[in-house]
Structures are given as structure tokens and as C-alpha cells.
Amino acid sequence: MTKDLIVGVDIGGTGIKVALLNTNGDILHKSSEPTPVAAGEDSVISKIVEMTNGLLQKENASMERVVGIGIGVPGPVEADTGVVLEAVNLHWKNTPLKAKVEGLTGVPAYVDNDANAAALGEMWRGAGQGAKDLVAVTIGTGVGGGVIIGGEIVHGVSGVGGEIGHMTIVPEGGPQCNCGKTGCLETLSSATAIIREGEQAARSGESTALAAALEAKGKLTAKDVFDAALAGDTGAVGVVDRAAFYLGFGMSHLGNVLNPAKIVIGGGVSAAGEFLFSRIRESFDKYTWAYAAENCEILPATLGNDAGVIGAGWLVRAKMA
Ligand SMILES: [Zn+2]
Question: Percentage of the chain surpassing pLDDT 90?
């Protein structure tokens, strides 16, 4: 039987997404379900197999047509062995995910970190198409990233390469990060940071618009801050300016070291569009050597929530002749 289907899986702390793809990376069917974290790793893995079988049924196909199963997980991975070193949100440690999935399905499985998978997805079918040297950044609660050089993810020696969010941007006196350091990019440019700074601007009286929003709702969202900034509130503009400055500054280090063709920025915050991107670009250009800056596009990601499953599919596609 011709093997012409690829399964892409994105395991998150709250939900599992599974997609059935053709070998061009088009999504034929997809589904999502809550992650049964509390039931343990074997239940999560069984759920993935069950969801995969459900999608195969929709296609009137069987596991025999599946080339392989690619899986993105929220934590560092030993890519060769497919062992998940740690996934805090899943309560996993040294989980032999590849071996377990292969044991249940009889199909080759490939495992990588979810941010790396999202980067590969953008390279294959998203804003990164055509580039082999690119950096993908996801700005949400934290700042995640993936670095691709020559079409390959940079894993580093212990599986934590590409952790863009933990580049130290403010060396002394910066905000505390979950990783144990201070002044990480994640503490300055994530949605969490924008909310923290927005609430600070509201309380200090620096932003009247945000003070009103905070008074009315009790807490702010990153969108509140962007909306107020777009409407011209100077305090909110200041918050966006600082977050964008730090992001562009952080990206300049990658620009100088890696000379990428594209930097693709996704996640909820990237929806702020040109208002945000023009500011990131300004800071990036200021600190990146002109030879690198001129040849680097900074673009919004285009795949949204599908980047993870499509990129997980690429883990399989990349092994095909
Ligand atoms: Zn950190």
C-alpha cells in the first residue's frame, strides 16, 4: 500500500491537536481534545493514537498508509531518541515518547519541542516558506522560539537550543523570570510582560485609558494595552514601545550571529500588526549590522494554531526521500 499520509501532533498542557496531512503539508482532517494530564503519560499517548485512528477513519484509511507520526511537546527533547527530557505542564520526565508511540502504532515517530515544531511549520507552509535560515518567535504568555539553519532545527548539546525567550536582555535589575534568571526577553516582551507594564502604567497615572480599563475590569489584557496605544494613549504607547524595543534588540543578536533570511513572529501579540512590527524593525535595524539587517525580513507568522501540527508533520516529511 502506498504510504501517502502524515500525522502531526501538538501536545499542550491543556489540549492535544492532531492533524492528518498529505505529503505536501495540506491538512486533510484535524481534531483537538483536552489533554488528560492527570491520568498520566500513557493515557495521553493512548489519546493521541485514538485521535489518529479517528482521523484515519474520516479518510477511509488505515495506519498502513501513514509514513510517520511527528509530535511536538512542551519541553526539551532528545531529538535522536525521541525521549522527552521534561515537560512541566504534562508532569513528564524522561518519557520515551517515540518508543511508546511506535510500540502502539507500528509507525515511525519523531519528536521535537513544540516551539521548534511551530518554526518548522512556518518554514514549510507559512511565512518562512522559501527560507532555510530563519528564526521563529512565538509571543504569548511567554516567548518561545525555534532557530533553523540550513533547514535544520538547532537543538544544541542538551536540547534547549533556540530558547530565545531566555536571552538576557537586561543584565542587572530586570524582572524575575520563571527560569530562575532575571531580565530574560520573556520578562520584557511577552503578553505577560505587556500586561504587567500596562497595569503599572495604569496605577502610576501614566496611562489614563489603561487606568479606566483596569478600574472597569479589575485586570488588563495585552489587547487592552495595544488598543489603548493604537488610540493614541501615550502611556500605553510607551509600554508597546518598550516591549517592541526589547524584542527588536533581542532579535538583533540573532541577526548578527545567524544572518537569517527571515524572522517570523507569531502568537497572540503579533496580531497587533504593523503598529508593533514597525517598532520591532526600528530597534532591530539599529542594533543589527547592515549586511545582515538588509537581507532579513521580519514577518508575521501565517499558520496560527496550525503551525505546530504542520511542523510536526515536517519532522516526518524531512525523513522522506
Ligand atoms: Zn528566563
Answer: 91
What are the tens digits of pLDDT across the range 215-259? 999 999 999 999 999 999 999 999 999 999 999 999 999 999 999
Asked whether residue 217 falls in the same domain as residue 151, the answer is: yes
Ligand 1 center–CA 318 separation, angstroms:
31
Give yes or no: residues 180 and 113 share one domain: no
Q: What phi and psi values does residue 144 have, to the nearest 5 degrees?
A: -105, 165
**Pair 259, 160 in one domain:** yes
CA of 321 to the centre of ligand 1 (A): 39
Same domain, 113 and 151: no
Q: How far is the CA of 71 from the centre of ligand 1 (A)?
A: 25
174 alpha carbon – ligand 1 mean position (Å): 11
Predicted pLDDT of residue 160: 84
Q: Give the Å distance between the CA of 143 and the centre of ligand 1.
A: 9
Query: Domain check: are 153 and 261 in the same one?
Result: yes
Q: Please indicate, yes or no, whether residues 96 and 164 belong to a single structural domain of this protein.
A: no
pTM: 0.93
How many folded domains does the chain comprise?
Answer: 2
Do 313 and 294 share a domain, yes or no? no
Domain boundaries, position 89? 5-121+306-317
Query: CATH number of the domain that 271 lies in?
Result: 3.30.420.40
288 and 198 part of one domain: yes
Q: What is the pLDDT of residues 33-79, one digit of tens each?
A: 999 999 999 999 999 999 999 999 999 999 999 999 999 999 899 98
